[in-house]
Amino acid sequence: MSSRQVFLQGLNASFPIVAGYLPVGFAFGVAAEGAQFGTFSAVFVSLFIYAGASQFALVGLLKDGVPLFSAALITIGLNIRHFLYGPGLSRETEGFSLRERLVAAFGLTDEVFAVAFSRIKDIPSESRFLWLMGLEVGAYSCWAGSTLAGSIGGNVLLNYYSFLRPALFFALPALFLSLLLLMLNKKTLPAVIISLFVAAFFHWSGHSETGIIASAFIGPGVGFISRRSL
After folding, report:
1. Is the pTM higher than 0.90?
2. For the chain, which residues make up each domain, given as ranges?
3. What pLDDT was estimated at residue 136?
């Protein structure tokens, strides 16, 4: 299989992510415009932070007057879970050079990791980097493009079709749920259940935000440990 075919194969694998990113990225563009970020700043955040839910949190925090330094620290805290994704794919990417690892790490979002984790084992080892690049380029370009579209035309569209607003802002959890169901099996079930209980405990205690961060660390940690022990 040629390099072009491998890349296109990865690009095709990104289509489920693209289907979810279109409404979510659009919704972020709308949210950023509503917070008076401006189109340039909204697209800049999507291009260089590229962190999905954390971008929504950042916009909300800045809109509420939280100092930029504090908002940045919270955003970084929400994204620390990404450090667990590299070890999760380490067995399948042992042949990557340092440069390839750094490039691949940038595009490794929650959704990209979910697809890569479940499918990269079926890709020949010499083709895995190009396949992963196709997967990541598809997701990244869609996220940036849908943010631009949402920032430019989102408010105009939603003024005419206001019923779309709740659907747009539910798109992110819906995307996470669909990917979770694809990954759910006997090996991942303990981590999912523990994450659920941790988040539910903090939510019922009135500390939902803390619960999100705690479950984001504890759940993947349990999954990583249980996988290493197999």
Report:
1. no
2. 3-183, 184-230
3. 95
